[in-house]
C-alpha cells in the first residue's frame, strides 16, 4: 500500500486551492483499501480497492503544532487497477524543507482531533462493507518524508491499523431461524473508542467498553449467525456475545482472542457456548492468569452477591441501576482509568441488552498491604473556567481557573508529599465530594477536568459524590457518574473495608435543601454489603454531608434532641448506622466533607461516644483565599492505617510543612473589626494567646509554656467564628455572603481554638499540642500574627 507526492498537478479542487498553503500536494496511492465500500472478503483475508469518493487527511508536525491538509481523489493511473490512485490537495501551511508527513484515509467514523486520530467503534452494522460497516471503522495509515522542492514523487505505504473479526455462531437446534433483535461484543481489553498518535498511529488513549452490532446486520443462515466487527488489535480476553434471538437473551462465550493490526480472523463459536440468561446480570471474576476468584462481592448498588467457586456471579439488576462494580479484595490491585489517570476503575456501565460483565483482577505481588497511607481531600469544588471569586486583595488579583489552582496547589503539594514517603509506601486517596460546582452555568467538561487532576498523582483515588456535583440536576449527576462511576460502592485495603455512598438528596424544586440522609434502598444495600465483611475488620464510611450534624430542618428532618442540633440535625439513620458498625471489632471511622471548616465532631448518642471526621476543604472558602472559614489552611489529611488501627492522622496545609499543625494569634488583634477576645469572651489587654489547632479533638492536649511553666489551654467548643478568617473574607471575598463564613452561619462549630492568658503579657509563649497518636507539635508567639490581615498571599508567603 503506497502513495506518491508529486511536484505539480492541475487537478486540485478550487476549494483546496483556497487554503493558506500554496504548494500543490498530489498523491498516487497504491494497494490501499477503500475508505468507503471497496473491501471484499477473499478466503482468510480482505482485498481492497480505492473508490472515487475517497479522501485522505494529511499532517505535518512542527513541535506541538499540527499542520493539516485534505487530499481528494483525482484518477486511477491504470483504470484496470483500483489499488492505485492519484490524489491532490494542500496543507494549510506551506513547508520550506523536507518534512515528515503523516496520512490516513478518511471515514465517517475515523476523524482527527487536536491530539490524534480518533476511531469511534461504538456502533457497527455487522456488515463487511457499506456505511457504518467494519471496514469503515478501519484506520489506513502511512508516513514518509516530503521534500517540497523536489520534482520526484515520494511513495508512501499505507497499512491497516485495526483488525476485522468475523464471528460465526453455530446456533443451538432449539433456536431455529428466529430473528436477531440485539447483539453486542464485550470483553476485557476491547475498546469502543481509540485515539491514535499522529506520528506512528500507536494507541494514544482508549475507552474500554462494548461494541453494539446492528441487529439487521447479523446474518442467520445455514444454522449459524454471523457478523463482522472492527476492533483495536491486541489480546482480547473473556470475549462474549450478548445476543437476543426470538425474544430470548443469550450469552455466547467466545473465549480469548489475539488479533494483530491489519489481520482478518474468523472466530467460529460452537453451539454449546450459548447460555440462556436466567438473570439480568452475570459474569465471571478471574485473576490475570485466568484462575477463578471466589468470594468477591459484586453489586449494582442495590443487590450484593459473592462469586462462587468458579468465580461466577449472577443476579437481577435493579431497574434504576446504572453500573455493576466489584469490591476490590485487599490482596488485589485497584485498576485505574489509564496509566496517567489514577482514579479507580472498578465498575462497568450497565447496558441495555447486555447481561454479561466479566472482571479480571490482578493480585498484589506482596499480598495484602498491612500498612498504607490514605490521603483524604475535602471539597475540591472547582467552578467554571474563570471564577469571579478571584477578586482578592487589590494587589493580588488572581486570574487563573479553579482547576489550575487545584492542580498546581493541592495536587502539586500531594505529589511532593508522596515523594517524601519511604519508597514503596502504598498510597491511596479519597475525595470527599463536591469535586465541582457549576457556578456560573453548566460546563460539560468540568468533571473530566477535575478527574484528570485528581488522577494525576501516583495515589489511586476514589471519590464520593457531593451536593454540588448534583445540585438537583440529573445532567450534573450523570456527568459525575460518567467520570467516577457508581455513587454507592465499596472496596477493601489492608484490614479496612471502605464504603462510599451518596447522602445528598434533593426535594422537588429545592435545589439546595439536602437532607444528608440515605434512602431505604441504600440502607438495604449497605446492610447487604456489610454482611459479607469479616467482623474483625475496621469499617470506614465515606460520604459528603455530616451524619452527626448535617441534616437541615427545612428538609423535613426531625431532631434527635442532641445539644449540637440547634441549626442542623443528626441523621435519622444514625442509630442504624451505629448498630451495623457495632458488629466490627476493628472499629470504625466516619469520613465526610461539605462544611468548608475542619471539625472532628463528637456527640454522645445511644450510649455511645461518636466522633465524625469532617474534613476541611481543599478549596477553602471556594477558592476565594487559602483558608477555610474556620481559619484552617487549604489542604488535605494524611491517615496511616496499620491493620485495623488508625495509626496516625495529621493535617497537611498546602505548601506548609507537615509539622505545622496550628496558627497562633493574639486575642486582641484587630482583623478588620474582628477579634478573638470579643468572639470568645477572652480577657482583653493581657496578651492572651489563641491557638487554632486544625485537627484537634477531645483526645488532644494543648499546653501553653510560659517561662518553663506548662499550663493546659482552654478549649473553645461551640458555634462561633474564627476572627482571622472572618476578617479576611469579610473584606476581600466578593461573592460569598458574610453569613457563610461568620458566626451568622449557625452551621459553623468551632472546637479547635484554644486560648491562654499569660502571667506576663510580654512573655514569649510556646504552644505544645499533643495529639491522640502521641505526636507533639510546637509553635511560638514569635510567629504570632499580630497585624490586621490584609492579603493572604503576603501572609502565606512568610
Q: How would you describe what is shown here?
A:
This protein is 11% helix and 37% strand. With 798 residues, it is mostly beta strands. It has 4 domains: 2-116 and 129-160, no CATH class; 283-365, Immunoglobulin-like; 369-653, Purple Acid Phosphatase, chain A, domain 2, CATH 3.60.21.10; 662-796, no CATH class. The strands form 12 sheets. Strands 13-1-2-7-6-5-8-12-14 form a 9-stranded antiparallel sheet, with no helix packed on it. The protein has a 6-stranded mixed sheet with strand order 11-19-16-22-23-25, with no helix packed on it. β36 (427-431), α3 (446-454) and β37 form a beta-alpha-beta unit. α2 runs parallel beside α3 (446-454). The longest helix is centred in the middle third of the chain and has 19 residues, at 402-420. The protein is globular and about 105 Å long.
Amino acid at each position: 500500500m503506497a502513495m506518491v507526492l508529486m511536484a505539480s498537478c492541475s487537478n486540485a479542487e478550487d476549494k483546496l486551492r483556497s487554503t493558506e498553503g500554496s504548494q500543490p500536494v498530489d498523491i498516487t496511492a497504491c494497494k490501499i483499501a477503500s475508505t468507503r465500500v471497496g473491501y471484499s472478503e477473499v478466503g482468510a483475508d480482505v482485498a481492497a480497492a480505492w473508490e472515487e469518493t475517497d479522501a485522505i487527511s494529511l499532517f505535518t508536525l512542527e513541535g506541538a503544532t499540527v499542520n493539516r491538509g485534505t487530499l481528494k481523489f483525482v484518477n486511477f493511473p491504470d483504470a484496470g487497477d483500483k489499488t492505485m490512485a492519484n490524489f491532490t490537495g494542500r496543507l494549510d501551511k506551506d513547508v520550506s524543507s523536507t518534512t515528515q508527513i503523516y496520512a490516513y484515509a478518511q471515514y465517517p467514523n475515523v476523524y482527527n482531533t487536536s491530539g490524534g486520530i480518533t476511531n469511534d467503534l461504538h456502533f457497527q452494522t455487522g456488515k463487511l462493507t457499506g456505511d457504518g460497516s467494519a471496514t469503515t471503522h478501519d484506520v489506513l495509515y502511512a508516513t514518509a518524508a516530503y521534500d517540497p522542492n523536489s520534482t520526484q514523487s515520494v511513495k508512501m505505504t499505507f497499512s491497516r491499523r485495526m483488525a476485522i473479526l468475523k464471528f460465526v455462531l453455530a446456533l443451538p437446534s432449539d433456536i431455529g431461524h428466529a430473528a436477531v433483535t440485539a447483539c453486542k461484543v464485550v470483553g476485557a481489553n476491547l475498546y469502543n473508542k481509540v485515539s491514535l498518535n499522529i506520528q506512528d498511529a500507536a494507541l494514544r488513549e482508549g475507552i474500554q467498553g462494548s461494541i453494539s452490532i446492528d441487529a439487521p446486520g447479523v446474518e442467520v443462515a445455514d444454522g449459524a449467525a454471523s457478523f463482522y466487527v472492527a476492533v483495536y488489535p491486541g489480546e482480547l480476553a473473556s470475549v462474549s456475545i450478548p445476543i437476543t434471538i426470538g425474544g430470548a437473551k443469550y450469552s455466547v462465550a467466545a473465549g480469548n482472542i489475539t488479533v494483530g493490526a491489519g489481520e482478518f480472523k474468523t472466530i467460529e463459536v460452537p453451539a454449546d457456548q450459548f447460555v440462556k440468561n436466567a438473570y439480568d446480570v452475570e459474569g465471571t471474576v478471574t485473576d490475570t492468569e485466568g484462575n477463578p476468584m471466589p468470594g468477591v462481592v459484586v453489586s449494582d448498588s442495590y443487590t450484593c452477591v459473592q462469586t462462587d467457586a468458579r468465580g461466577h456471579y449472577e443476579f437481577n439488576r435493579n431497574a434504576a441501576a446504572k453500573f455493576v462494580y466489584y469490591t476490590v479484595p485487599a490482596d488485589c490491585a485497584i485498576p485505574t482509568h489509564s496509566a496517567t489517570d489514577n482514579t479507580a476503575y472498578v465498575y462497568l456501565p450497565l447496558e441495555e441488552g447486555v447481561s454479561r460483565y466479566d472482571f479480571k483482577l490482578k493480585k498484589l505481588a506482596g499480598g495484602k498491604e498491612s500498612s498504607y497511607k490514605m490521603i483524604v481531600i475535602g471539597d475540591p469544588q472547582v467552578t467554571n473556567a474563570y471564577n469571579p471569586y478571584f477578586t482578592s486583595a487589590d494587589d493580588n488579583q488572581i486570574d487563573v481557573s479553579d482547576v489550575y489552582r487545584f492542580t498546581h496547589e493541592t495536587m502539586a503539594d500531594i505529589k511532593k508529599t508522596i515523594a517524601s514517603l519511604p519508597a514503596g509506601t502504598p498510597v491511596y486517596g479519597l475525595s470527599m465530594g463536591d469535586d465541582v460546582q457549576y457556578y456560573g452555568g453548566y460546563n460539560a467538561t468540568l468533571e473530566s477536568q477535575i478527574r484528570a487532576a485528581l488522577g494525576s498523582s501516583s495515589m489511586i483515588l476514589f471519590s464520593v459524590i457531593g451536593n454540588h456535583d448534583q445540585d438537583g440536576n440529573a445532567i450534573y449527576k450523570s456527568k459525575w457518574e460518567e467520570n467516577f462511576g457508581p455513587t454507592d460502592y465499596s472496596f477493601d485495603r489492608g484490614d479496612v473495608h471502605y464504603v462510599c455512598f451518596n447522602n445528598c438528596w434533593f426535594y422537588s424544586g429545592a435545589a439546595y435543601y439536602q437532607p444528608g440522609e440515605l434512602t431505604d434502598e441504600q440502607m438495604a444495600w449497605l446492610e447487604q454489603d456489610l454482611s459479607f465483611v469479616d467482623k474483625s475488620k475496621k469499617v470506614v464510611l465515606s460520604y459528603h454531608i455530616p451524619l452527626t450534624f448535617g441534616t437541615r430542618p427545612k428538609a423535613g428532618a426531625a431532631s434527635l434532641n442532641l445539644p449540637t442540633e440547634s441549626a442542623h440535625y443528626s441523621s435519622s439513620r444514625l442509630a442504624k448506622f451505629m448498630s451495623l458498625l457495632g458488629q466490627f471489632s476493628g472499629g470504625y471511622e466516619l469520613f465526610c466533607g461539605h462544611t468548608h471548616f475542619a471539625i472532628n465532631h463528637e456527640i454522645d448518642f445511644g450510649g455511645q461516644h461518636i466522633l465524625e471526621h469532617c474534613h476541611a476543604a481543599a478549596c477553602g472558602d471556594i477558592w476565594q483565599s487559602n483558608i477555610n472559614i474556620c481559619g484552617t489552611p487549604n489542604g488535605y489529611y494524611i491517615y496511616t492505617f496499620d491493620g485495623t488501627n488508625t495509626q496516625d492522622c495529621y493535617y497537611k496545609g498546602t505548601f506548609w510543612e507537615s509539622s505545622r499543625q496550628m496558627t497562633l494569634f493574639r486575642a486582641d488583634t484587630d482583623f478588620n473589626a474582628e477579634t478573638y477576645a470579643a468572639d470568645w469572651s477572652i480577657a482583653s489587654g493581657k496578651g492572651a494567646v489563641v491557638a487554632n489547632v486544625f485537627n484537634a479533638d477531645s483526645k488532644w492536649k494543648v499546653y501553653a509554656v510560659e517561662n518553663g511553666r506548662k499550663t493546659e489551654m482552654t478549649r473553645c467548643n461551640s458555634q462561633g467564628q474564627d476572627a482571622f478568617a472572618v476578617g479576611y473574607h469579610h473584606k476581600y471575598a466578593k461573592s460569598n455572603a458574610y453569613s457563610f463564613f461568620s458566626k451568622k452561619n449557625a452551621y459553623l462549630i468551632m472546637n479547635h481554638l484554644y486560648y491562654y492568658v499569660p502571667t506576663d503579657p510580654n512573655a514569649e509563649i510556646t504552644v505544645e499540642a499533643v495529639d491522640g497518636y502521641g505526636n507533639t507539635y510546637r509553635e511560638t508567639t514569635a510567629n504570632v500574627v499580630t497585624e490586621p490581615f490584609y492579603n493572604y498571599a503576603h501572609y502565606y508567603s512568610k
